[in-house]
Amino acid sequence: MTIPPAIVASARMGWRWQWTQLMNGLAPADNEGNYQRPPSEHLYAEVPSKVDLQKRVKSQRPRLVIGRSCPWAHRTWLVHQIRGLSSTLEIQMAQANRNAGRWEINPPWLNCKSLIALYKLCQTPPNHRATVPVLIDPGIGINPKPKILGNESTQLIEVLNQWPTNNEAINLAPKELAEEIKAWEMLVQKNINDGVYRCGFARNQTAYDKAAGALFTTLEKVESSLSLKGPWICGEQLTLADIRLFPTLIRWEVVYMPLFKCLNEPLWVFPNIWSWRQRLMQIPEVAITCDTSAWQEDYFGALFPLNPSGIVPKGPNLNSLINSSIPQQKSR
Hints:
The protein has two domains: 50-161, Glutaredoxin (3-Layer(aba) Sandwich), CATH 3.40.30; 175-323, Glutathione S-transferase Yfyf (Class Pi), Chain A, domain 2. It is built from 14 helices and six strands. The chain has helices at residues 5-26, 50-55, 71-82, 115-121, 153-161, 178-193, 195-200, 205-229, 240-250, 252-260, 271-281, 284-287, 292-302, 318-323; strands at 63-67, 90-97, 102-109, 112-114, 134-137, 147-150. A six-stranded mixed β-sheet has the order 4-3-2-1-5-6. Helix 3 (71-82) packs parallel to helix 5 and helix 6 (178-193) packs antiparallel against helix 8. The longest helix is centred in the middle third of the chain and has 25 residues, at 205-229. The model has no long low-confidence stretch (mean pLDDT 93).
């Protein structure tokens, strides 16, 4: 039986109102409908001394608490892996509980079963959201006092680049490239890393078009830079500029194209970006951090306003996708 147009129109209006209320809670926007990431309440990161860390047994080492699906946590995990920090810094994986809307710790650590419990144990100010990534020092001695060493990803990747280790580790932020790395950070963070969210969380067509335009214009700039300077964004050396961009572009076909509507062009039309992503995935320490199942489960399962059915699609095999050849195309 055909549903009368009046009922369809009424249902559409009702759903639109409900969708707006849900989006207001999930992703705040300005008066023009542009997604506005909430200001980050964070603690300033600090680096313990190498002497202190070397004295500690494994149970006393600081831990980097991350979640597999979070792109901001992913960048800190990448620095940990690439620099080989496992001898002085442990990884604690948190699991997303979509029904409860929180990160859980299983098995518990420091008698805490959730991330919010860890934040409270560290006597974090109540206005700070319990988010990943977070770097926690469990303390030492008879009455240890756990504390947060940092919980903002931009700061944490810089801290982890200076983190003491027992091995010879790559410097991902050499002084001679500092200004260039900073410039890429400002551009990539706003237009690509946040840009995919501005597309997905746009309230109207105008806001979406604005975000998508900035996103793909910036991808053109990355493509141009790689064609002139490659193999890495800042030239011959892998740097934090690459680390900041990779978590977004490795999720591109699996999450951001289908769910956030980043569909202007497929990524393979940027051949230098395509090759850059392949090079990163050829690094074993990078590949081990990529989990498409976790990304899809958490994004498609948690973002109800964008995927009300809750259906999680079967995405492409990541290795096959990354290693595939790009179609023949006209020069850009």
